[in-house]
Amino acid sequence: MNNYPHPIIAREGWPFLAFALCAAVIASSLLGGWSWPFWVIALFVLQFFRDPARVIPQTPNAVLSPADGRIVVVEKAHDPYANREALKISVFMNVFNVHSNRSPVNGTIEKVEYFPGKFVNADLDKASTENERNAVVVKAENGQTVTFVQVAGLIARRILCYVNVGDTLARGQRYGFIRFGSRVDVYLPLTARPLVTVGEKVSATETILAEF
């Protein structure tokens, strides 16, 4: 099953890509062969905003990865957004990862909270509590609470979230985007069983982080 109601190049990147391509074309007309750095930048922008289709696993009770990247945390931690002890799994996204964010579970949104903050390296643990972030708390269809938090990084300066309290999310549904390097924290019930380890590379939607 695919969930792909959007272009293969994310709409969030269209203005950046248009500017980069125009700059490259103008540079080519003025500088000739010396314009190659502008084309490298345009290619970087193109790859950053790519947003390929993903196949949604049908495994019962699966919690899917909300982002592409590398696992940097699998531990017991306090979930400040749902005020509980939880299993925390964090995915660090570098500038070469796809930056669309997708829902890890089916459920109904109970809370959406935005917090201004710093822009320290998202690979650091303190980024979870000190950086700019946007938290979504969902009541999953099995009654469990799942929190997923978009965290801005060292370069990221814009967190985009397109959902509101009361909305229903489906596993793999695209709900947001973070520009230029970031992190997503997922808080699960302590009874959830993690299926990933620190250092492992994961893909949004297609990788199962844990099972209820």
Detailed description of the structure:
The chain is of the alpha+beta class and 212 residues long. The chain folds into 2 domains: 11-48; 62-211, Glucose Permease (Domain IIA) (Distorted Sandwich), CATH 2.70.70.10. Helix content is 17%, strand content 36%. The protein has 3 helices and 14 strands. It has an 8-stranded antiparallel sheet with strand order 9-5-6-7-11-3-2-13. A 3-stranded antiparallel sheet has the order 1-14-12, with no helix packed on it. Strand 2 and strand 3 form a beta hairpin. Helix 1 (14-31) packs antiparallel against helix 2 (36-48). The longest helix is centred in the N-terminal third of the chain and has 18 residues, at 14-31. The radius of gyration is 18 Å and the shape is elongated. The two termini are 21 Å apart.
Summarize the structure in short.
The protein has helices spanning 14-31, 36-48, 127-130; strands spanning 62-64, 69-79, 84-93, 100-102, 107-115, 133-140, 145-152, 159-161, 168-169, 174-178, 182-188, 193-194, 201-202, 208-211.
Write the layout of secondary structure elements.
Blueprint: H1 14-31, H2 36-48, E1 62-64, E2 69-79, E3 84-93, E4 100-102, E5 107-115, H3 127-130, E6 133-140, E7 145-152, E8 159-161, E9 168-169, E10 174-178, E11 182-188, E12 193-194, E13 201-202, E14 208-211
Helix pairs in contact: 1-2
